[in-house]
Design a protein that fits this description.
Chain A: GO terms for molecular function: histidinol-phosphate transaminase activity; pyridoxal phosphate binding. By secondary structure, chain A is of the alpha/beta class. Helices cover 41% and strands 15% of the residues of chain A. In chain A, the strands form three sheets. In chain A, strands 2-8-7-6-5-3-4 form a seven-stranded mixed β-sheet, sandwiched between helices. Chain B is 28% helix and 29% strand. The chains are: A alpha/beta, B alpha+beta. Bound molecules: pyridoxal-5'-phosphate (PLP). The site of pyridoxal-5'-phosphate (PLP) has 13 residues of chain A, from helix 6.
Chain lengths: 370, 418
């Protein structure tokens, strides 16, 4: 092979995109930052881990089953979820994490030159997936930390295919009520698919939080995302799902990847559906941990926002990226928010009590350094 | 798809004239003025003439970069002796071919080098366009406070901002000659945010341009309001808008090498100090956009104490390693970017080899002799090869001045003020 002109084969929107580089594993981070251990408060995981039945399932799991392909589209899990939410299992699609489901949806509805509409300060993956697919992400500024329905409606044009609403929003924890989402759907009036990404829905205790599965019946262009990564403590197994009206689901199924969810994930998730005691225990933990951070914020004179989900944000008097490094040097990993377009803010997951205590001590020291 | 004219010619004096003619004609056809076309042609002639006989076909391409024209010269052979590009090699006069490359390097306003696939090398010579002199209009009296967020300005607004900043001598050298600034932006070499008052008139601007692979250098801000709260609000809004526009792409951080007193300091960290000619120093500021996951720092023995202490002070997670000597025994070369108006030269590694220290010291001596008052060098500590230059730079009187963090390779800025 003499001349392999790679650039000629790569679409411009891929060439222009910079690959996401995840943080290295803990052993490497510990060595580089010179700490014996690392409290990870950066990924919004559930410190309680998976529910009891999922643990039992995994403990009893036979390693020889690893040789076998899983069932290809989550037959049993979709039925279990269908029963739980009174939805036809054909309307449900599984993915290797909700992240993969985002890709299915963009692939199903967008072609290069189209656009998606979402917020500027929200989960990054909608924006990234669109960008490297040649689809323009139209980013609407948040208003008072929340998705701005009027401005989002304004941003929709005839090339808009999908509107992503992160509800509750990562990282601000703000959310639209059932009535607000309903009114938004009325105003969109079928011009685009609307995704309600409810990755953190199970943390919302307020009865005004949307019953999106019910709204789907009135608004066939509504897609709902859920994940087993957050409330269900299965982030490491990578499993998420979506629900949509029958025709929309049938369309997304075409671009979904069969067999992409592994056997263990499907079985563990099925065992987890729908352990109310686990939900209650997790919510109780979050209330307590959030109160602890609120106390810390008050003591240090920091603004704190976010009252839904397993995370909150603090506004620092110093650069968040500097604070991130200094916290790393003390064995605590929180999320620097400049990349979420919140320079000067830190997002902290509400993790195990010991990690929260380490965070409090470390943050106080870091801020004392000025 | 670019439609830049390109040609391939054998190396050596016999084809040098053909290359020069090609470049000159293409430059003229592309709208370049005579002076520019001639300089580019001379560069092509010198490089082709000096290229070693074993270089294989040499690729020439001419690109119109609006504010400059760029002649790229591609060498595809993997093991070339291009040491003549090093400006300090002027002493080896008996080797005529090296003089050619040396001259070519001197004719360009800027020479950059980048590796090609499978061991080749691309040399890019930039020659700047001349812009007619003009007297900039001054800003009107009574500009109001900022209204709305700072935004990416249209051409007319950007031109107005630059004229007003230039008339009031604000913002520094980046805020001069409006047509050039527009060309730089159109070319993707400069980015801007401008704040407007309620009557949509510019009241301040902030620029940035690429600095190395993954960083941007901020210039300004130029603030047109009188000292006070309204002016500080403009500065804050400009920085916020710059950060929002830069994140989630490939840029890892912002560096400020010449902080204007109006740059809001909160949110920046001081990563070092640069000496100025009058003996004073000023801070080098940095703002990371992304979390730093740690990385490797290849640090030569002479700099180990300084880099280790600074790495610790900045709380960077780094494996600090001592690099092996470069495999190549001789033929090290450095690229130099000169700014004659300011008496500044910045040296970078071009080809690392066993004689790197000697070559580095030779470069510093050369520019010192030529009367340059600010001599700097930038080493990428993510590349084990580059450390080889450090010893010579330090011997020649350069000292580490700043460590600009980048997990993929911190940039060590060395400086000597004469
Ligand atoms: C809002 C939101 N959606 C989706 C995801 C991705 O979830 P999963 O782990 O299922 O891919 C996350 C994870 O952080 C999230 O915050």
């Amino acid at each position: 092979m003499k001349d392999f002109a790679l650039d000629r084969l790569v679409p411009a929107h891929v060439r222009a995109f910079e690959a996401y580089v995840p943080s290295p594993p803990d052993d490497v981070l510990c060595r580089r930052f010179g700490v014996p251990q690392l409290h990870r408060l950066n990924n919004n995981e559930n410190p309680l881990g998976p529910p009891e039945a999922a643990r039992a399932m995994m403990a009893a799991w036979k390693p020889e089953h690893a040789a076998l392909y899983p069932q290809g589209d989550g037959w049993h899990l979709r039925r279990a979820l269908g029963r739980q939410f009174d939805i036809d299992p054909e309307q449900l699609i599984l993915g290797n994490g909700a992240n993969e489901v985002i890709a299915f949806v963009i692939k199903a509805f967008c072609e290069p030159g189209d656009n998606i509409v979402t917020a500027d300060r929200t989960f990054a993956v909608y924006e990234w997936l669109a960008s490297f697919s040649g689809v323009e992400p139209k980013l609407v500024p948040l208003r008072d930390y929340a998705f701005d329905a009027a401005a989002m409606l304004e941003a929709i044009d005839d090339r808009t295919r999908v509107v992503f609403v992160c509800n509750p929003n990562n990282p601000t924890g703000t959310w639209w009520t059932h009535d607000e989402l309903d009114a938004f759907m009325d105003a969109v009036d079928g011009r685009a698919i609307v995704v309600a990404d409810e990755a953190y829905a199970e943390f919302a205790e307020d009865p005004a939080f949307p019953d999106s599965f019910a709204l789907m019946q009135r608004h066939p262009n509504l897609i709902v995302f859920r994940t087993f990564s957050k409330m269900w403590g299965l982030a490491g197994l990578r499993i998420g799902w979506m629900a949509a009206s029958p025709d929309v689901a049938a369309t997304v199924k075409k671009t979904s990847i069969s067999y992409s969810v592994n056997l263990l994930a499907m079985e563990a998730a099925r065992a987890a559906v729908w352990d109310e005691a686990h939900v209650a225990a997790t919510r109780a933990h979050m209330r307590e941990a959030r109160a602890g951070v609120a106390e810390l914020a008050a003591r240090l004179g920091l603004t704190m926002i976010g009252d839904v989900g397993n995370f909150c944000m603090l506004r620092l008097p110093v650069s968040d990226t500097v604070a991130h490094r200094r916290l790393m040097g003390r064995g605590v990993m929180a999320r620097a928010m400049t990349s979420f377009r919140y320079p000067g803010w830190l997002r902290v997951s509400l993790g195990p009590a010991a990690a929260m205590a380490a965070f409090a001590t470390a943050l106080e020291e870091v801020l004392a350094e000025g | 798809m670019t439609l830049d004219p390109r040609a391939q010619l054998p190396p050596g004096p016999r084809h040098a004239g053909i290359g020069a003619g090609f470049v000159r004609d293409c430059a003229i056809a592309g709208g370049a003025e005579e002076r520019l076309a001639n300089r580019l042609a001379l560069i092509a002639e010198e490089v082709l003439g000096a290229a070693p006989a074993n270089a294989g076909l040499v690729g020439l391409a001419l690109a119109d970069r609006r504010h400059s024209m760029r002649l790229s010269v591609d060498f595809t052979a993997s093991d070339l002796d291009l040491a003549g590009l090093d400006q300090s090699r002027r002493g080896d006069i008996e080797e005529g071919e090296e003089i050619g490359l040396y001259l070519a390097a001197r004719l360009a306003d800027r020479l950059t080098t980048e590796p090609l696939d499978r061991g080749g090398l691309r040399l890019s010579f930039d020659v700047g366009r001349a812009y007619p002199a003009m007297t900039p209009d001054a800003a009107p009296a009574g500009l109001g406070p900022i209204s709305g967020p700072a935004a990416d300005p249209d051409d007319a607004t950007l031109a107005l901002l630059v004229q007003w900043a230039e008339a009031a001598e604000l913002g520094g050298p980046a805020f001069r000659t409006a047509p050039r600034v527009l060309d730089q932006r159109a070319q993707g070499d400069l980015f801007a945010r401008v704040a407007l008052d309620a009557r949509r008139r510019p009241v301040g601007g902030l620029f940035w341009h690429p600095f190395g692979r993954r960083l941007m250098e901020l210039a300004g801000p130029a603030l047109l309001l009188p000292e006070g709260e309204a002016r500080a609000a403009v500065a804050g809004a400009l920085l916020d808008a710059a950060l929002a526009g830069l994140v989630r792409k490939k840029i890892q951080g912002l560096v400020v090498l010449e902080p204007s007193p109006d740059m809001p300091r909160a949110g920046f960290e001081t990563v070092g100090h640069l000496p100025s000619a009058d003996g004073a120093t000023w801070p080098v500021l940095f703002r990371a956009l992304e979390e730093d996951p740690g990385g490797i720092s290849w640090v030569p023995a002479v700099l180990k104490d300084w880099v280790t202490a600074t790495t610790r002070r900045l709380a960077l997670g780094r494996d600090i390693e001592e690099p092996a000597r470069p495999k190549r025994a001789t033929g090290a070369a450095m690229a130099a970017e000169t700014d004659r108006a300011r008496g500044r030269v910045t040296l970078r590694s071009l080809i690392a080899a066993g004689d790197a220290a000697e070559v580095a010291a030779g470069n510093v001596a050369l520019f010192r002799d030529q009367g340059f008052s600010e001599i700097r060098a930038l080493l990428d500590l993510g590349k084990p090869d580059q450390a080889a230059f450090a010893e010579g730079l330090v011997q020649a009187g350069l000292a580490p001045a700043a460590l600009i963090p980048d997990a993929a390779g911190d940039l060590l800025l060395l400086a000597a003020a004469e």
